[in-house]
Amino acid sequence: MAPIVESKKLTKQYEDFTLRDITLDIPEGGITGIFGPSGAGKTTLIKLLAHQMAPSAGSLRLFGLSYDDSEKEIKNRIGYVAQEPAYYWNRSVRWTARFVSRFYERWDGARFYKLLEEFRISRRKRMRHLSRGQKTLVSLAIALSHEADLFLLDEPTAGLDMVLRRNILRRLRDLVADEGKTIVISSHITDGLDDVAESIHFLDAGDLVLQSNTEELLASWKWIHFKNGSLAPGLLDRLVEVEKQPFSSRGLTRDFPAIREELSEGIATGDVKVANAKLDDILIALLQGE
Q1: Cβ contacts of residue 255 below 8 Å, gap of 6+?
Q2: For position 191, what pLDDT does the model report?
Q3: What pTM does this model have?
Q4: Which CATH fold topology does 5-212 show?
Q5: How far does CA 97 lie from the centroid of its chain?
Q6: What is the pLDDT, as a whole number, of residue 286?
Q7: Rounded distance, CA 233 to CA 216, Å?
Q8: Residue 226 — φ and ψ, nearest 5°?
């Protein structure tokens, strides 16, 4: 089956920043996380995928189609949530919904207003009076209300409280499980996305420095807790992010399967313990040049 998103050496060049040679193959169904620090190029990549800007070089196909030949068809099948949405700020939420509905062949107004109720946003409220999180929720409600097949979400949980953030992530997971949708989420934080993103793409300074299946990534990266003196020097040198304490220390390995056997004796005696790493641990280690 052809990927739902396929890019080859996709590049966007600015005067002081370049997103370089991004090659992606995102399959249909599932959630893909695009992570990285501020300024890494995440928003630029999402805008390229949503055709909010043209690339400087490279190619891009969505649903097997190109924007040059099939822009209207592609955009009818995309639910796009921008990090900084652009609306008529003096208009109401209800007016905004009527306005944007004209651009989609399939529009479910009942679903939109049901989502507004769930998000506790008044349809009569003017857009300029919404908080940042509420503006994002209106964008998300629009994206969910025109039967999109692919969702491109740039920082969709920014400005949301913990409960609402968790609910949004659950809803996105349900879209994949129940309706077979495909979701691409850009975020500078990974909180909650460890459990929903099936694949990880990590950007740093315009470069795609990591692409991995999440399960495989978390299986390889582990925290190794050990009593001081219990690891052979050669093994200790293979750990990163080593945090030393008076009686015990811990370090991060990026290839646990390769050192599992060497750790087995220490694990058996209790001198060594293995703990799961979080995505944040891994991405910080990559940023610091582990």
Answers
A1: 220, 238
A2: 67
A3: 0.89
A4: Rossmann fold (3.40.50)
A5: 26
A6: 86
A7: 27
A8: -145, 150
